[in-house]
Design a protein that fits this description.
Length: 507
């Protein structure tokens, strides 16, 4: 049986997912087979595995840090919010139904066998399983039916490292307050505390650590500095939204109310001289060098929001001279129309933005698959991408077809054998060559696609960027960031202590 360790936090965004990824990398470096696990994830950022199952991206990142292929067993339950009161419930990689919060809370304990089954599958292949909790274990209104924090820790016998976020302030109250609200058998599982995101002189913190250990009766296992590593976190969007400074190349992502898979644009943040801004009104949009319409969990609703806020009109006006690209839901919005005959989202049809010659019908079945191919036959500014291999995944409720099927067939390009039968090319281009769209998430992560796009924008603007002197390998860069993460945690975490609680854990 695998050894198990669990990272819980005093709140959302305490850094649990990053700490778990770092431990996965450390254990891998030390020669162990390691796998991540999170029983229940709530996120709009998801991923499709090679066998066509949907899971949260946080565990995908952790799997890559562990050097293994992502598996749906790492995240058996995924909740994707569709409104403030409900979510799409995905179990074992497949959608079950949309449920209001109250209904799901009454239902979720029925999913414990699925959680146990997934965990046991990981035990067959891993020496160590690194578990990530969700939110806080001290949510006293939710504890009775918990399946992701202490409820799970007790179920699998996992020792817990409890992380608090000092960057937000009040870390001692966070940690001690959480311990105080735990039941005695839950507190017994907490073997160590982590002060995360520390900036400054650690010696000034020392008296507080002594008092924390005296009052909490749990040792501090590490004081982890605020890490500037380019690794996506589950709750990292809030920090991205603060970006307002413009680079030489200014990329604007429309911040849709139900935006999903914003990680599609992370690669551009790593290119020197390039800024990625998330904008939610016309004033913030201004005149960027390129506009991205991201995915959405409610495409029709977010399209109507764009229409009401004036952003749609601004994007359409800019699209005459500014490149615009839509991914997934954003791709659907750029078309002529979106029909919702089955009430999947708003239960109404809506005209699209009319910038791409496609029409979309929302369907009951969700498309879930990985895709590969080569981009070709694009025109206008997008011709710079022709001949480029791509690799990514599709995940959408709906099927798009060409308004003019015959012309679409002539332009059919880059289709993967796995891709759903469609007359559409992988990337659809507008007649004026300024607008394009695709269903493929992660389109720009492969090879030098991002570099080619930014180079085109720089040439169009007649500027030179240092990053454009050579291609940029995003995947190799990500590997270096996992190593940097592991090195930092090794330096500031008592890893001898971590290995000791692993050895002593009751299985």
């Amino acid at each position: 049986m695998s050894k198990v360790i669990m990272i819980q936090g005093t709140m959302s965004n305490a850094g649990k997912s990053l700490l778990a990824a770092g431990l996965c990398r450390i254990f891998k470096q030390d020669g162990y087979r390691v796998a991540p696990f999170k029983s229940q994830n709530m996120a709009l950022n998801s991923f499709i595995t090679k066998d066509g199952f949907e899971m949260g991206r946080a565990q995908v990142v952790q799997a890559r840090a562990a050097g293994i292929e992502p598996s749906v067993y790492m995240n058996p339950i995924l909740l994707k919010p569709v409104s403030d009161m409900g979510s799409q419930v995905i179990v074992n990689g497949k959608p079950v139904s949309n449920m209001p919060a109250r209904k799901y809370f009454a239902y979720k304990k029925q999913l414990i066998p699925d959680i146990i089954h997934a965990f046991k599958k990981l035990e067959e292949q891993a020496d160590i399983i690194v578990i990530e909790g969700a939110g806080s274990p001290a949510e006293i209104n939710l504890k009775a039916d918990d399946i992701v924090n202490m409820g799970l820790a007790k179920l699998v016998g996992a020792p817990v490292l409890l992380a608090g976020d000092i960057d937000r302030g009040g870390v001692f109250a966070q940690l001690l307050g959480t311990l105080m609200l735990l039941e005695p058998d839950e507190k017994e599982l907490v073997k160590g505390l982590i002060i995360n995101k520390f900036r400054g002189d650690k010696t000034i913190l020392a008296p507080g650590i002594v008092m924390l250990e005296e009052r909490g009766h749990v040792p501090v296992a590490g004081v982890i500095p605020y890490m500037k590593v380019a690794i996506e976190e589950e709750d990292s969007l809030s920090e991205k939204l603060e970006q307002s400074q413009k680079g030489l190349i200014d990329l604007a992502v429309i911040r849709l109310p139900r935006m999903s898979n914003y990680t599609d644009f992370d690669v551009f943040e790593q290119l020197s001289g390039v800024s990625v801004r998330y904008v939610h009104n016309v004033r913030e949009l201004e005149t960027p060098d390129c506009i991205f319409l991201p995915g959405s969990k409610n495409t029709v609703g977010d399209l109507l929001w764009m229409r009401q806020s004036g952003i749609e009109a601004a994007v359409k006006k800019l699209s005459k001279t500014t490149p615009v690209i839509g991914i997934c839901g954003g791709f659907q919005m750029l078309g002529e129309s979106i029909a919702d005959p089955f009430g999947i989202e708003q239960g109404m049809d809506a005209p699209g933005m009319g910038l791409l010659p496609i029409q979309t019908t929302l369907t009951k079945e969700k498309t879930r698959l990985q895709v590969t191919g080569t981009i070709d036959h694009l025109s206008g500014v997008w011709s710079c991408l022709n001949g480029s291999p791509y690799e990514g995944y599709e995940i959408h409720m709906g099927k798009s077809t060409a308004v003019n099927a015959s012309s679409s067939k002539e332009k059919k390009v880059g289709q993967s054998p796995k891709q759903p039968s469609s007359d559409l090319p992988t990337v659809v281009c507008s007649e004026n060559g300024m607008v394009c769209g695709s269903y493929v998430h992660g389109l720009f992560d492969e090879g030098d696609l991002a570099w080619k796009l930014v180079k085109m924008l720089a040439d169009k603007k007649n500027v030179t960027l240092e990053a454009l002197q050579s291609g940029f390998d995003y995947k190799k860069f990500q590997e270096s960031q996992y190593d940097l993460l592991a090195d930092t945690i090794r330096q500031h975490m008592d890893m001898d202590f971590v290995y000791r609680i692993l050895r002593e854990a009751k299985i």
